[in-house]
Design a protein that fits this description.
By secondary structure, this protein is an all-alpha fold. The protein contains nine helices and no strands. Helix 1 runs antiparallel to helix 2.
C-alpha cells in the first residue's frame, strides 16, 4: 500500500528548495564518482549504477528539460489527492486528515507555478494542463465528497471543506490564467534542442 510517512505533504517548488536539490544531487554525484565503478562488490554493483543513473536522470530533468519552467502539469499533478481514496491503507478519517493537509498546500503550489513558468508556453502543455485542471476541479467538487460521506467527525469535515474550497479557488484561478492569458500567446516549441537531447544520461 506504499509508504505513508509523507502523506499530506507536497514538493516545495520555491527557488531556494529547487537550487538546494540540484546542489545536493551534484554532491551525491561527486561522492559516487570517487568510488571506482569496479570497486563495489558484486551484490552492490547494480545498486551503484542504478544510483548513478538516478542522479543523472534527475539532474537532466531539472537542468535540461526544465519541466518546472515549461509545463504546468508538473504542478497540477501535485494537487492530486485521488490516491488517498483509491487505496484503503488506513481508516477513512486518517486518510481525510491527509487529504485536508494536502489540499491546504494547493494554493501555494499553484502560486509557485505562476512564478516559475516561463511564457510563452508550448501550446500542447498549456492545453493539456488546462484539461487536467478542469478534470481535477470536477473530482474535487463532485466525486470526492461522496467518498467521504461516511465520516461522522464534524470537525474533520469542516476542516476538509475549508481546504477544499481554497484549493478549488486556486485551481479555478489557474484555469482562467491558462485559458485567457497563456493559450492565446502559446507557441508550438515544445521540443528540446537536439544538442540538449544528446546530453542525456543514456549517452554518457
Amino acid at each position: 500500500m506504499g509508504l505513508h510517512g509523507y502523506d499530506g505533504l507536497v514538493t516545495d517548488y520555491g527557488p531556494s528548495s529547487m537550487a538546494r536539490r540540484v546542489s545536493d544531487l551534484k554532491a551525491y554525484r561527486q561522492e559516487l564518482a570517487a568510488i571506482a565503478p569496479d570497486a563495489p562488490p558484486a551484490p552492490a554493483w547494480l545498486d551503484y549504477h542504478l544510483m548513478r543513473l538516478a542522479i543523472e536522470r534527475e539532474l537532466f530533468e531539472r537542468e535540461t528539460l526544465r519541466e518546472w519552467a515549461r509545463n504546468p502539469m508538473v504542478y497540477i499533478y501535485s494537487c492530486d489527492v485521488s490516491s488517498y481514496v483509491k487505496r484503503n491503507y488506513a481508516p477513512l478519517p486518517v486518510r481525510l486528515k491527509a487529504i485536508t493537509a494536502h489540499l491546504s498546500h494547493v494554493p501555494d503550489v499553484l502560486s509557485q507555478a505562476r512564478a516559475n513558468l516561463e511564457l510563452p508556453m508550448p501550446r500542447t502543455f498549456a492545453q493539456t494542463g488546462l484539461d487536467i485542471v478542469l478534470g481535477t476541479l470536477d473530482f474535487l467538487r463532485d466525486e470526492l465528497p461522496p467518498q467521504l460521506a461516511s465520516v461522522e467527525d464534524g470537525v474533520l469535515m469542516s476542516r476538509f471543506s475549508g481546504a477544499q474550497g481554497r484549493a478549488i479557488a486556486a485551481l479555478e484561478a489557474l484555469a482562467t490564467w491558462l485559458r485567457d492569458e497563456v493559450l492565446p500567446k502559446a507557441n508550438e516549441q515544445y521540443a528540446i534542442h537536439s544538442q540538449k537531447a544528446g546530453r542525456t544520461m543514456w549517452n554518457k
